[in-house]
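Lab meeting notes turned into a lecture example. A postdoc, R.K., suggested we walk through two folding results consecutively so the class can see how the record format repeats. The first protein's sequence and structure tokens come next.
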Amino acid sequence: MTDYSNLSDADLVQMINADDHHAFTAIYYRYWKRLYVLAYDRLRSRQMAEDVVQDVLTGLWQRRGQTVIRSLPAYLATANRYAVFTQLSKMIPVTTVEALPEAVQAVADDTAQLHFLQQSMQEQLQQLPEKCRLVFDYSRNMGMSNKEIATELRISEKAVEKHITKALQRLRVQFRNYFHILSALF
């Protein structure tokens, strides 16, 4: 009786190609855990990792004699990787062709609303007093701190805070009816 656990991978592959079930069982027990760990590391699901390993090893048996295997570990690792990718692709929701025009239209609508709001906001900011508008621009668009703005404009930090508060209050009043759009966009 042959001790399969002491045979090399190359010997086991030759024996599988000759339909030796015991050689397949030896490979199964030799590589199952390694393949499982690799699959689980990417999938983070015990059941999916087990399914992947089962598919890989079943595929090895089903394709016996049809594939030249130079390195069994490399062959199994590659097959495992592709099986994991296949499993992951099944998890990604697919947008149906029928739903695509609606999705494109929704994005176009959101883009148009966002453009309208940006344009309206710029118009509102242009109506602010010059120093208030400048402080708001430095703060929000240039990312300057209140201290930096105060130094740049030679005003107190308290004055900077008052200008920012004034600008934000004006925007809140003008855009109170658009918060539902903003919350849907962001």
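The second example is placed directly after the first for contrast:
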Amino acid sequence: MNRNIIPHLVIAALPFLVTAAHASSDEAWKQLAADVEAKCRKAAVAIEKPNAVVDPFGTSHYGLALVTGKPKGVKGLVVQICVYDKQEKSVEIGSAMDAKEFGLTPAK
């Protein structure tokens, strides 16, 4: 095969490769976000009905979320940072911090 034709074949196939990668990436990001949300909410055992807001992409190694809600047994609103290890698919959650420190107030 003529070596001059290889770059042309690659260029011709590029739009198809990019489209296929983009479509699977969108679905993969959605699945990752759903897993981060579910695992972070489950890990927030000190919060009644925790709400998790997921960073859409996180970092190259970690999914990230802020978990908020009413602490069990007391009034107020707390925030916890949740870190999801993309390779291990496990989470770690930080301690509950008063949401007022972040300028947040409980919903009425």
